[in-house]
Design goal:
Helix content is 46%, strand content 11%. The protein is built from 15 helices and eight strands. Strands 1, 2, 3, 4, 5, 6, 7 and 8 form an eight-stranded parallel β-sheet that branches. β7, α9 (192-202) and β8 (206-208) form a beta-alpha-beta unit.
């Protein structure tokens, strides 16, 4: 969720019911070098709690140092990313790349656990490829060196985000009688109905939601309402969508400053209004405007123009 799960977006997710959140993943080398972009990602706010700071890297010593820096920022836990599949991360031995070297993965985790006073958790995948889906053994070994919870994406690194996530192996981790830490499932949860079905079928302790919340932070509210009542409620109308965009923009301006806040908000507009017919000219206007007041005026125009549209 790099470039997505920053403080402005997390503010919306929390408002709409997310129980637990994580920062964008942060480079261990960037933290050690005091790189501005990495350090900025350490920002956490009281209203976000409980929140974890997620770090990634390929070198054990660097990860130890980064974990200590992350802990000083005051999160509720430190999370290790062993799941990112993108080439620039994985092919350097970080993220999911470490799934090619399980002994190093275990050693690195132990060093981080021993460094931190806060709980340490792990996010990972089933394995590097179809021939190395050793997640049941790996999860147990990580538990044995002290992690407090594990989140598992039901794909291998080779799959990236293609094909269907295999939750049966996530269930196998949960069903392992030697496992006693919480096991969270991740991958393909794109509807409240699916969230309930997968939770019941695979027995996980919780569900991690990522891509489904992009441009739709209300997804957390829908899932929780469906789990509690069997009814997710209606999708947000145009008024609520624009209200969410305005809050996202406001938080972005506050945290990033006007110029960067406006520019980085541009990647979100298409997602918030996904499925809206004849929206192209409005989107083009939103992504070319530099003045927050002009953006506000355009959003107001969108409300009036599409106010009667029903999202399905």
């Amino acid at each position: 969720m790099e470039d997505v799960s920053d403080p402005p977006f997390r503010a919306l997710c929390k408002e709409y019911g997310a129980d637990m959140m994580y920062t964008e993943f942060i480079s261990s080398e960037g933290l050690i070098r005091d790189a501005a972009k990495s350090v900025a990602k350490l920002d956490v706010f009281e209203y976000e709690r409980p929140i974890g700071i997620q770090i990634f890297g390929a070198e054990i010593q660097s990860m130890r140092e980064a974990a200590a820096i992350a802990e000083q920022a005051g999160p509720d836990l430190v999370d290790i990313n062993y799941g990112c599949p993108v080439k620039k991360v994985a092919c350097r031995g970080a993220g999911a790349g470490i799934l090619q070297d399980i002994p190093k993965m275990v050693s690195m985790t132990k060093e981080i656990v021993d460094t931190c006073t806060l709980p340490v958790t792990v996010k990972t995948r089933l394995g590097w490829d179809d021939g190395s889906k050793h997640i049941v053994e790996v999860a147990e070994r990580l538990q044995d060196v002290g992690i407090q919870a594990i989140s598992i994406h039901g794909r291998t690194r080779a799959q990236m985000y293609k094909g269907e996530a295999d939750w049966s192996l996530i269930a196998a981790v949960k069903d392992n009688p030697r496992m006693h830490i919480p096991v969270f499932g991740n991958g393909d949860i794109d509807s409240p109905e699916k969230a309930l079905r997968y939770k019941d079928k695979y027995g996980v302790d919780g569900i991690m939601i990522g891509r489904a919340a992009i441009g739709a932070p209300w997804f957390f509210r829908q899932v929780k309402q469906f789990l509690a009542t069997g009814d997710a409620g209606p999708l947000p109308d145009m008024q609520e969508r624009v209200r969410a965009v305005r809050l996202h923009l406001q938080k972005s301006l506050e945290w990033k400053g006007e110029r960067l806040g406006v520019v980085e908000m541009r990647r979100h507009y298409a997602n918030y209004f996904r499925g809206l017919p004849h929206f192209k000219e409005h989107r083009l206007a939103l992504v070319t405007m530099d003045n927050p007041s002009d953006i506000e005026a355009k959003l107001e125009e969108i409300v009036h123009h599409f106010g009667d549209h029903v999202f399905l």
